[in-house]
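Exercise: predict the fold of this chain.
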Amino acid sequence: MITNSNSISKLQLYFFIIQSQIGIGLLALPNAVETTTKGDGWISTLVAGLAVQITIIIYWLLLRKYPNAIYTEITKKILGKYVGKLCNLFIFIYFIMIGSLACALFIRTISLWLLPLTPMWVLSLIIILSSIYLTISDLRIISRFFVLGSILIILLFFLSFFTFYLPKDFGFMLPVGQSGVKNILMGSHKSLLSMLGFESILLIFPFILDSEKGILKTASFANLTVTLFYTYFTLICLISFSPTQLLQIREPVLYIFKVLSFEMIDRLDLIFLSVWIVPMTTSVIIYMFLSAKSISKENSFKKNVILSGILIFIITIFPYDEDQLALFNKYVTYLSYVVVFGLPIILFCLSFIISKTERSEQL
């Protein structure tokens, strides 16, 4: 049942989407796109943002047909009870897998940069317990936390201005378009994975206190903010490191702060990462929330949050090496294309056909 206590405003929606999209993927994004796009990585990020925007519009067109139903109810209405439930289980598995990937990457980064001697399972347990504590709250409390957490993103944006003390070479970006359309599109594929999280709209749409057009505008503005944010940091790394250096540095966004040193402030990379722990944690919270929501009835949400947390913890305590983590990332990427892009488009097409058929029968 949707009530005012679990509804969110359009301002909370804006920051909810921002926190959903911005996370661990930012740190390695410039390195990921450099492998295919060279100096055109910033273009790939913009293309990925455009793809996300088109997908958000498709979500909106689908969800406005069923304004009072959550996404998992829509799947059963369109596909039927049994196929819909099977589809919802598949969605649940996706959210568990991508939440586990986000948590595993989070743990790896913290272990490499901050706490190299702390066992992986301890880091995972701390992250999971803190995420469960917030996720079992209602949507409004989670959204309020995301609004407060977004202040740290603004802080990090201003912190990035210190990087302009480093030498910059805009020649690393030239000539624009040098990598070709094919490579730019391949780079946008890698950028797209870092921007995932906007699919949260599918499960929170009925809980937003705004008009249908207002929801679309807010979601679009949030996506624009995230796209420009990612493009900005990609540009900074592109003009700060040579192509060869960028290919060798796994987390260039962190490394660019590491080389900075001031008389009163040292190791800005550790300051950046310590603050960035909050956006990385919100990524885990988001997917834990969405996974529980995708299979929950009215009174089972808290139990399903705990179940989701246990599953994510079990998956993340496996000792992944770099190759295994890359393979895990690859499989989750394929799964995301099916659940985030393919399934909603299929449902929208089927809903359009159903609506047309119903109108024809009425005539």
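Check your answer against the key: The chain has 15 helices and no strands.
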